[in-house]
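**Tokenised fold:**
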Amino acid sequence: MKINFKLVFTVFLFMLLNTLNAQNNFEMEIEETKIKDLIENCYLNGALNEMNTDAMYEGYHPDFAIFYAEEKELKKLPLDVWVKMVDDYKNKSADSGLRKFEYEFVQIDINETAAFVKLKLVRNETLVFTDLLTLLKFENDWKIVTKIYHSHIENPWKL
């Protein structure tokens, strides 16, 4: 019986590559789940729905900032200032529902130690914000490092 070594090698190589691809997909699914959980706990329920500012400190890098445009200027809202704004709102306001959002993860792009997440935030069936978050992996933990956003309605916080 003659063994076709080329065929055996090709089958072996195909099986190996298929296994490696499946392992990589599984690892990316785990990372995506970690990122979604982090954003739900520390952003969506931290700064928004539950206003749990302690959770914000767990999920954001200390140097985190929200960047936004004001006319021709780039503005920066640091984490501590944002947390204080959320705390002030929570402590001084009756719950008007302004911070209650349903959300959709539109896109998650992960590249080993860097990730990008696009979210849609809906209040009372109206699209209010599209948020773009960037994350970095520090040792084994993901941290949100920046946020930019687009407001789909005028004056979404009724300030």
Q: What stands out?
A: Residues 85 and 91 are 10 Å apart (CA to CA). The two ends are 83 Å apart (CA to CA). The helical segments are 5-48, 53-59, 79-92.
